[in-house]
Structures are given as structure tokens and as C-alpha cells.
Design goal:
342 residues, alpha/beta, 49% helix, 16% strand
């Protein structure tokens, strides 16, 4: 099997090496076609790897590339450009730009990923803004949501680009045939919404997408569409709210089954079904948001991710690189002649 090489910003995220290194080893165990480059302070990374004592079969599938600096989680774009070029984040993107890796993963802040990605990898022709996309659980499976915070202010052309990128990603990465695409709005009615969503709605109707029209927030979790499109401000609110709600529900359900002997007995009966349900709700199970619109694959992990979540982000990066998501986005943008609209 041809290996897919992914560069991992080992210091990205709130937990640093305590999460990234175990997650990297777990990703290698779960994906035989994966190879990793761990980027960061080499002595520190090697010390964590040594304590983990990975089997020799895994040890031959990763390497460490040294980087002196670490980008703070709240780093501004200006900080990254001026002082971040010796960082593990910047070096991870450089490895992709130099074709030493096919994708990169980082838990660093969105602004830092944006500036490094655009500067080092560049945007696809016809794409003027990259967008973060994640998959949220719905009644039947999952709904893709973009943008999640990379673009707080957008115009209609950006929303159209997001819709095309979401459609391609659903097809290529999730094997969804003819995905249903909806535009998030304050109502389903044609007359509702501000000028930006109205104009985007008009343009999307003219494209050969499976565009279903306006959707509301509850439609995302009801499975009414496969891809929901919105600006980054709205998307981030939906994502963070859904993650908080999922964690609250998981805590409440577990607490309810631990109240007394009868509830614990009920847990024995409902255990397998409950476990599957809670696993779907767990935000770590769908961590890893690709920054779509770049020339190569870059995936953002949640800054507070645990080992399970970071593992999921690494596997997502390998899968999207393997399935050539950026190349397929570029082809569809060209087919729809969106280059002239940027």
C-alpha cells in the first residue's frame, strides 16, 4: 500500500505533546497506509515517544522534524508572520508545500492556521476564502457544516464557494452520492434573510448542485441536508453550542443511570445501545475540521482535543489527502466557472 504522509504540529493545541504523540501512535495503529512527521522540539518529542515505547513496526513509520518555536493559541496573523516562522505550525505547512507531506494537522488557533495555510500553500483558483468544515451528528448520520469561524464576514460569492467545497467534500471524503446542500437562514421562506443570503440563494439555484434552499438550525440536526452553508460567525456558534449540549446530555444521562440500584440495573440492560448513542454524540468522535480551499489538505483539531479527538483529526487528514479533495474542488470550481466571480 502506498503510504500517505501527514505532518503533525506536535505542539498545537492546549494539551501539547501529552495528546499529540499518543494520538499519532494510535492513528498509525488504525491506518496501515499512514506515515507521520511529528514536528516540534525534537528532544521533548523523543522523550514522550520513548516513554510510550511503540512497537518497532510503528517506529519505522514516523519521524521527528525539529522546530524551535511554538505558536501561542491566541496568536494574531501578524504575530505568526513576524515571529512564527520557526514554529512547529509553520514548519508543518512548509513540509506540505515542499511535497515532503501530503497534508498537515494542527490544534493551533484558527487565525494562525489561516495565515500559514494561505501564505505557504495558497488558495485554489476560483476560491477567495478558505473555510473550515466539520461533521455534526443528526438523526440519521452526520451533517457537514461550513464555515466554522475562518470567515466572520462573507459576501454571497463566498457562500457559493463554500457550498461547492462542501458538496465535493461530502462526495469525496464521505461517499455521499448527490449530497443535499442547504443555506442556513432564519426561516425557510423565500422572503426571509438579509441581502447576502438572498443573493447567494439566487446564485446557488443556478448551479447544478443538489441545492435544497434555505434551512434553519434544527434542520442541521434533523438530517434535512447533508451539507449546511453559513458564515463563520454563525457556524462557530452552532458548532460550540452543539458541543456544549452534547457534553451536557452525556453527563446527565450517565448521572441518571448512577443514581440508585434500579437505575444501575437499567444501565445493564440499556448499556450497549446507550454506549453507541453516547459515542455518536461525543464531540471527539467527529473532531478534525479541514480548511477547505487551500491547494493541499490542512486539518484543524479542536484546541482542547483529547487523544481520541486528535487521532480522529489525523485520520481525517490522511483520508482527505488520499481521496484528493483539493484537486476535486478545483475541478468543480472550474466546471462551474466560478473563477470569473472571484
Amino acid at each position: 500500500m502506498n503510504e500517505t504522509t501527514v505532518a503533525l504540529d506536535a505542539h498545537g493545541g492546549d494539551q501539547g505533546l501529552g495528546v499529540s504523540v499518543p494520538a499519532a501512535l494510535e492513528a498509525l495503529r488504525r491506518d496501515d497506509g499512514l506515515r507521520l512527521i511529528l514536528v516540534g522540539k525534537e528532544p521533548d518529542i523523543c522523550a514522550v515517544v520513548e516513554r510510550a515505547a511503540p512497537p518497532s513496526a510503528l517506529a519505522g513509520r514516523f519521524e521527528v522534524v525539529h522546530a524551535d518555536g511554538v505558536v501561542p493559541m491566541d496568536a494574531s496573523p501578524a504575530h505568526v508572520l513576524r515571529r512564527g516562522r520557526d514554529s512547529s505550525l509553520w514548519k508543518s505547512f512548509e513540509l506540505v508545500a515542499e511535497d515532503r507531506a501530503m497534508a498537515c494537522v494542527s490544534g493551533s488557533g484558527t487565525a494562525a492556521l489561516m495565515v500559514a495555510g494561505v501564505k505557504l500553500l495558497g488558495l485554489l483558483p476560483g476560491i477567495s476564502r478558505p473555510a473550515l468544515m466539520a461533521w455534526l451528528p443528526n438523526g440519521q448520520s452526520y451533517t457537514g457544516l461550513l464555515d466554522l469561524g475562518a470567515n466572520l464576514n462573507v459576501d454571497a460569492s463566498h457562500l457559493v464557494q463554500f457550498a461547492v467545497m462542501g458538496d465535493v467534500t461530502a462526495r469525496a471524503a464521505e461517499n455521499i452520492e448527490n449530497p443535499r446542500v442547504g443555506l442556513l437562514n432564519v426561516g425557510h421562506e423565500e422572503s426571509k434573510g438579509h441581502d447576502t443570503v438572498q443573493l447567494a440563494h439566487e446564485r446557488l439555484q443556478s448551479l447544478p448542485l443538489n441545492y435544497t434552499g434555505f434551512v434553519e438550525g434544527h434542520d442541521i440536526f434533523g438530517g434535512a441536508v447533508d451539507v449546511a452553508v453559513c458564515d463563520g460567525f454563525s457556524g462557530n456558534l452552532v458548532l460550540k453550542s452543539s458541543e456544549g449540549l452534547a457534553r451536557m446530555l452525556m453527563k446527565q444521562v450517565r448521572g441518571a443511570f448512577e443514581e440508585n440500584f434500579l437505575s444501575r440495573s437499567g444501565l445493564l440492560l440499556a448499556g450497549p445501545t446507550l454506549k453507541r448513542t453516547l459515542a455518536r454524540l461525543d464531540p471527539s468522535a467527529h473532531n478534525g475540521a479541514p480548511l477547505l480551499g487551500l491547494n493541499r489538505v490542512a486539518v484543524k483539531s479542536h484546541g482542547g482535543s483529547d487523544i481520541k479527538g486528535m487521532t480522529r483529526a489525523i485520520l481525517e487528514a490522511g483520508r482527505e489527502a488520499r481521496r484528493q479533495v483539493p484537486e476535486k474542488i478545483e475541478a468543480l470550481v472550474h466546471e462551474y466557472q466560478l473563477e470569473s466571480a472571484t
